[in-house]
């Protein structure tokens, strides 16, 4: 009986150490990516970026997402596979970019970059900054869908829409069965 308890304690400690390492590793990669993006945006003021040809390379950090209510500045990386999401918020390939008048979809892990997005409310702002400008969006609504529901990703042309997606429930352990979706539109100020 004592051996079983000891094994369970060691196993539990090992799982906690692994989870801690994963979290620290993700934060490190987020910081490195964010520093690279900030440096690139500072240098890009002299670049001539055209919307029609804008196409960041897969896996590259290219923008920043600021969530003022949460006091967060997060790197945005092209792509949404596990390697991309380890660096920050992932831009879902095939969706649009700011000022292109279509749907922009950003995805992130609920336990890292989007840890507190459940605290956001209608009317809160989101800011995307990239080479060709800074764009402010106002949250309009939230919704919870099944993890298999891909209908949230679609063209909204000519209306621009920023969509944030993360797993739900927020405190779920393992692969969550649902997705939490936040919809925002450009600020008209």
Write the topology of this structure.
Blueprint: H1 2-43, E1 61-67, E2 72-78, H2 82-85, E3 89-91, E4 103-107, E5 125-130, E6 133-146, E7 161-168, E8 178-186
Parallel strand pairs: 2-3, 4-7
Antiparallel strand pairs: 1-2, 1-5, 3-4, 5-6, 6-8, 7-8
Quaternary state of the chains? single chain
Largest sheet: 8 strands, mixed, barrel
Shape call: globular
Rg estimate, integer Å: 18 Å
CATH architecture: Beta Barrel
Low-confidence stretches: none
The proportion of residues forming helix, as a percent range, comes to: 10-25%
Structural class of the secondary elements? alpha+beta
| Total domains | 1
- CATH superfamily grouping: Sortase
Strand content: 25-35%
What's the end-to-end separation, in Å? 67 Å
List keywords for this structure.
189 residues; alpha+beta; Sortase, Chain: A; eight-stranded mixed beta barrel; globular; hydrolase; Sortase_D_1; Class D sortase; Sortase_D; Sortase_dom-sf
Question: What can you tell me about this protein's structure?
Answer:
With 189 residues, this protein is α+β, with helices and mostly antiparallel strands. It has a single domain, classed as Sortase, Chain: A (Beta Barrel), CATH 2.40.260.10. 24% of the residues lie in helices and 31% in strands. It has 2 helices and 8 strands. Strands 1-2-3-4-7-8-6-5 form an 8-stranded mixed barrel. The longest helix is centred in the first third of the chain and has 42 residues. The radius of gyration is 18 Å and the shape is globular. The N and C termini lie far apart (67 Å). The mean pLDDT is 85. Keywords: Hydrolase. InterPro entries: Sortase, Sortase_D, Sortase_D_1, Sortase_dom-sf. This is Class D sortase. It comes from Terrilactibacillus laevilacticus. Pfam families: Sortase.
């Amino acid at each position: 009986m004592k051996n079983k308890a000891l094994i369970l304690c060691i196993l539990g400690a090992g799982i906690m150490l692994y989870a801690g390492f994963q979290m620290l590793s993700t934060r490190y990669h987020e910081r490195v990516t964010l520093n690279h993006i900030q440096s690139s945006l500072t240098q890009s003021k002299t670049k001539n970026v055209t919307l029609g040809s804008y196409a960041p390379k897969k896996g590259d950090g290219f923008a920043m997402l600021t969530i003022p209510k949460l006091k967060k500045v997060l790197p945005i990386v092209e792509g949404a596979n596990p390697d991309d999401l380890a660096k920050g918020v992932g831009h879902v390939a095939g969706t649009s970019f700011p000022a292109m008048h279509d749907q922009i979809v950003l995805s992130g892990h609920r336990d890292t970059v989007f840890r507190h997005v459940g605290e956001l409310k209608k009317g809160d702002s989101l800011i995307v900054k990239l080479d060709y400008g800074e764009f402010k969006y106002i949250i309009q609504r939230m919704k919870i869908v099944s993890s298999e529901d891909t209908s949230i990703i679609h063209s909204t042309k000519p209306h621009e829409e920023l969509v944030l997606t993360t797993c739900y429930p927020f405190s779920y352990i393992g692969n969550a069965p649902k997705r939490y979706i936040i919809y925002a539109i450009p600020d008209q100020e």
